[in-house]
Amino acid sequence: MIALDVLCLRSDVNVSRDVNQVLVTDKPISLVLREPCKLQHILTSTGTAMCLLFCYINPHPQIGQYKLVLVNNRDEQYTRPTKPAHFWDSGILAGMDMKPGTEGGTWLGMVRSGHIGCLLNILQPAGNPQTGKSRGSLVVNYLLSKQGGLECCKRIQESKEKYQPFNLVTLEPAGDSYKMVVYNYEDDQIEQLKPGIHGIGNSSIEKPFLKVRKGCKKFEQIIETHGKVEKEEELMKALEAMMRDDEACFPDPQIIIQGEKNEEQLLKDLSSIYVSHYEYGTRTTTLILVDHTDRVKVQEKTMRQPINTHKPDWDTSRFSFQIVKNDK
């Protein structure tokens, strides 16, 4: 028997099915960036559909404490059709990419066994060809497989050339705590991270962007101040505020190196935790809390579609359920 409570605070969402158009132009890139309707090709060619994740793993959770606290921002083109978080027929709790050709994938998902998968793209130089299989299937395949994170990452590593660069984060219950495994495409390394505070962005773990360093410090302060179950509402509000921080961390040497040949304004806009750049930016924030009793709370705040980029409306969905061990 699965205990499942769902509180949905959003109205029905009209999913846009606009198809991204490819731009061919002889104009200087500085002019193109001033025409929002033509921006999508520029963003696609840089691999800038990114995301940002902060995670706290408690090695020895006591009564009233959390095993896991996770917060994620999804940065994406505002016109990309997406379904908000919901339980899929397969049992995955996640938002769903609905772009024709890649529909059915996701950037962040969880199943009732407590396993979590998250995809974060790697910032690329302007003009890099964007070919290969959809990376959104990586999270789905992990959550539906019988493999643990380490085994899954090893399997993906063997076929990495089929995809554009990415970080894949896997989390799974391990005793009274959680195990976190990360595969970084660029370094071709699989790492099992120790419990504690972690920030994963759009570069290798060893070379984090400044906004990741900044976020980790703030995240640690929030956990120390509000990291108990009795302060859950304060915790969630503080995490939401952190993920809405739009202060640029620029110049950032790592962003400049990875994003070479890109417009400086684009790189500056990408240097903040909350991204806003013409027709692209942070459009979804997700919180996942797992307490010492394996009670899970998930909250997603996402821009209502079609998105008004000047004054977006936000829909909130909340889910609560008990982890069912060995249900994967």
TrEMBL record:
One of its GO terms (biological process) is protein secretion. It comes from Petrolisthes manimaculis. Pfam families: TANGO2. InterPro entries: TANGO2. It comes from the Eukaryota. This is Transport and Golgi organization protein 2 homolog. One of its GO terms (cellular component) is Golgi apparatus.
